[in-house]
């Protein structure tokens, strides 16, 4: 009986794998498209995606049980605000939840949180408090700026660049918070220098080194470092080489094609990948040119936008909250860095004029670097993530041997 159950389980798994593989194999993908989308189009889609993501994660507004859940809902809210969705009431609800987490045993108590996430959760909280106009220097009796500063002032470059100490996907948002509110941090110069050094330690001409190289790593970790790009020639040279990699149609040694020549999407782990495509969009929006970013945007929307659920994006043909979060990341970056415009008709001259992309002051403060436009794809945030995962079926002789290549992110050390 046990053997029969094992056999049935094996067959069920095999059918599931074949279903996923053949589902994508039978999908007709859109051809590569260089056309520039309008500001209105991208804004509308980004708001729809933000609404979908928040609806899926709404339970976290009042109940978070881990530092990664804290980060998920915080980033949902930050990105939704960034793309122009009014999330004031949701943020205020979550901030009331956050106030319960300072007590002993709570996530915002240093003794109860991991080193990297403790600082990151405070970075997220600082941003949310500022979005709704509350006082981050006295939130629930706590000076959030001081706690954030003190959690990092003595952290060495060796620790910051050690993925066992700090998930590298957190570096960009630590940096964004630091830059956005620099005047409030007593040890700003030291912390900023250490974060920049840590970034250099984990990045080379092939990308960010974290379980190998990937578009996901680059889009998540390198977000928001434009100031460092402009001031450090070595870092600028690395970024420039990565732009070339993200626009290359030639497969890397591990089989990844950063720009599939037929669709423009990222091809990784045996399939066109929505998450990697979205995060390559985020990277190219900031560091690439308009055509490269447009190709990634069109590839994301035309190949992975759900045909049944407003705002959702798909993985292997099925709606996926993970792919939708990464899509929101890419769309937010595209709005922030893409210099998108709307074409309007001048009725007097009958010529088209461009309306420049602007962001309301209520959404993003002047000269403020937006908190990293990246939804982390690491296992601590995406325990069931599908971003870099696919399945391979190998038929050997007369027997079928099922090899499920589980997502590399699920194996990452927190």
From TrEMBL:
Residues of the signal peptide? 1-30
Source organism per UniProt: Lachnospira pectinoschiza
Give the transmembrane region(s): 387-405
Instruction: Keyword check for Membrane, yes or no.
Output: yes
Name used for this protein in its record: Uncharacterized protein
* Keyword match Transmembrane helix: yes
Sorted keywords for this record are:
Membrane, Signal, Transmembrane, Transmembrane helix
């Amino acid at each position: 009986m046990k053997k029969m159950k094992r056999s049935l389980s094996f067959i069920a798994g095999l059918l599931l794998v074949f279903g996923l593989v053949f589902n994508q194999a039978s999908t007709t993908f859109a051809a590569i498209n260089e056309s520039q989308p309008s500001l209105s189009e991208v804004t509308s889609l980004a708001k729809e995606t933000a609404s979908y993501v928040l609806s899926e994660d709404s339970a976290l507004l009042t109940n978070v049980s881990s530092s990664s859940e804290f980060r998920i809902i915080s980033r949902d809210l930050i990105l939704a605000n960034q793309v122009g969705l009014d999330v004031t009431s949701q943020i205020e609800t979550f901030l009331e939840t956050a106030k319960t987490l300072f007590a002993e045993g709570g996530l915002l108590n240093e003794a109860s949180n991991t080193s990297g996430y403790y600082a990151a959760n405070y970075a997220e909280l600082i941003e949310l408090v500022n979005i709704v106009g509350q006082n981050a220097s006295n939130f629930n009796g706590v000076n959030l700026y001081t706690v954030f500063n003190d959690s990092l002032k003595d952290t060495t470059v060796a620790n910051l660049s050690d993925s066992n100490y700090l998930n590298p996907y957190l570096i960009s948002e630590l940096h964004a918070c630091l830059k956005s509110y620099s005047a409030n941090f007593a040890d700003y110069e030291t912390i900023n220098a250490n974060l920049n050094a840590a970034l250099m330690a984990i990045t080379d001409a092939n990308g960010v080194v974290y379980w190998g190289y990937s578009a996901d790593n680059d889009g998540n970790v390198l977000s928001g470092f434009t100031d460092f790009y402009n001031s450090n020639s070595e870092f600028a040279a690395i970024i420039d080489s990565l732009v070339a990699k993200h626009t290359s149609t030639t497969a890397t040694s591990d089989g990844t094609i950063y720009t599939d020549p037929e669709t423009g999407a990222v091809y990784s782990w045996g399939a066109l990948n929505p998450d990697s495509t979205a995060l390559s969009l985020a990277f190219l929006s900031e560091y690439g040119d308009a055509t490269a970013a447009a190709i990634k945007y069109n590839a994301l929307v035309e190949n992975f936008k759900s045909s049944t659920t407003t705002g959702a994006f798909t993985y292997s043909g099925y709606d996926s909250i993970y792919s939708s979060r990464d899509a929101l990341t890419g769309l937010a970056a595209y709005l922030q860095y893409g210099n998108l415009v709307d074409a309007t008709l001048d009725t007097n001259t009958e010529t088209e004029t461009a309306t420049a992309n602007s962001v309301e002051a209520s959404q993003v403060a002047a000269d403020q670097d937006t908190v990293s436009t990246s939804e982390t794809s690491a296992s601590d945030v995406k325990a069931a993530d599908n971003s870099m995962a696919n399945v391979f079926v190998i038929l050997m002789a007369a027997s079928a041997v099922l090899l499920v290549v589980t997502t590399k992110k699920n194996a990452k050390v927190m």
